[in-house]
Amino acid sequence: MAVAVPNKFAPPGEMAPPEVDDMAALPLSIGTISGAFNVRGSLNVPPADRITLLPERQLAWLPALFYNEGMGTLRGMRDCKVDYFSERYMSFMIKWIMRGYKIDRARIDGSLLHFGLRHPEIFTRMQMGTYTAGYDLRWAPGGPSMPRVLGPRGIKTAQGEDAWAMYSVGEYVNTYPGRDIPLLICISGTGKDGGHTCEFGWQDDPRGWAELLKGRQTFVAAWSCGLPGELSAGLRDMRWDVSIPAFSYCSLDNNPGNGDPSDGDYYGCINGWLLWGDEDQTDEKDKWEMTVWVVSSCPQDSCTVDVTPRHCRNFKPAKGQQFKWTNTSLAGNDVIGSGTVTADQWGLVTLKAVKVSKGRNRISVFR
Hints:
With 367 residues, the protein is of the alpha+beta class. It has helices at 39-42, 85-100, 113-117, 146-149, 169-175, 195-200, 204-214, 229-236, and strands at 2-5, 8-10, 26-30, 51-54, 67-68, 82-83, 103-110, 125-128, 183-188, 219-223, 244-248, 268-270, 274-276, 282-284, 287-294, 302-310, 322-329, 334-342, 351-357, 361-366.
């Protein structure tokens, strides 16, 4: 493991960070080193504006989650435990850094999608590269190593989960719908049939996004293009210590298709035209409010979208609780929608087909 801070360097194996009490809060970048551990080849000049953590990967092509304790031994894989050894290792390293240094939690980054999904207390948002991401490792280059790392298909983790399935973003979020995840910024900038998207395969991108929509999770996606500038700037400056809305099935969304590059729209976005206010939100035991709007560069003035409160500190409905809701157009100060909604079995409250416009809308859920 290597840790680099401005003007300081902690060599591999050093387990006590230097005193930096006088240092302002800095971003944290988390990378990984595969194969032979060579710090000189992976960490040349430590960036002056951030702390860098480079732990050695335990699994070359698979994420920092779990593996079979019989891996690399003569023991039968079916008779051995599949446990979250790598997740605990990575979590320990990151939280050790967060305890020892002043970290700006709004600016922690790292290419740890499957690990990060499970740790919104570490990552507030995660941006998935400019080319592609492995939403389902069963379809990616790491897939062929699963029998060696995990064991045969159908083998369970120590928590009773299907081990192979838990290397899928969609399987995870829909196995645990009540759990929040970091806001995912999913950009497949090279399009459906070029660059790493071609190498890794396009099929798991639209399938992964469809499962995120089904799970009513917080994410935005774009393919063959970037995100609108107003949205990118808004997300960059957003507060992440407050509740945020999950948008699903927006009428402005493009269609990424079924996984075949010839199916669906060649370029487009999902949730790419929507923003929300982070300063005037309400997160109380029996009340949640948020101002949402369509960004000014959108070719349409309004849309309909499902809205689910996420990352709530205080608004935590119980299964079966009923709430009233209103949608107020701030442009005309008119209530343009209202009704009742019942919390589902996971305590989630979802408002269906809410109208949102460039003039901004105040969404209120209350008892």
